Amino acid sequence: MDNTIMTYVSAFIVGGVICAVGQVLIDKTKLTSARILVLFVSAGAILTALGVYQKLVDIGGAGATIPLTGFGYNLVTGTFKEVDKLGVLGAFTGGVKAAAAGIAAAIFFGYLMSVAFTPKAKR
């Protein structure tokens, strides 16, 4: 039980630090939300390619894989696995295969929410 609590604490801290970095970027820069999104996904991909992000995932678990940086991690990890299996063709298919379930779930649940709730116009 003690190990489970530390797993939750580690995930909370790592995820919180990633989100805090995003909040600082929103508050202290003139970057748009879209640019911050691209920055986080790209940072996750680059750090994974350099072998740094895997260490963060080992420490923080879901706290590192759930935020946007985790999407970049997922793309690069999937690409590396498919390149090992298929060669150059895996560079084109790996990221798509690795992220397909998450993207499909986001589309599906987004659609369900749009059917279940009526949006209101902003004032």
Automatic annotation (TrEMBL):
Transmembrane listed as a keyword: yes
InterPro entries on file: Spore_V_AE, SpoVA
Annotated signal sequence range: none
TM helices/strands, residue ranges: 6-26, 33-53, 98-117
Keywords on record: Membrane, Transmembrane, Transmembrane helix
Protein name in the entry: Stage V sporulation protein AE
Pfam families named among the record's database cross-references: SpoVAC_SpoVAEB (PF03862)
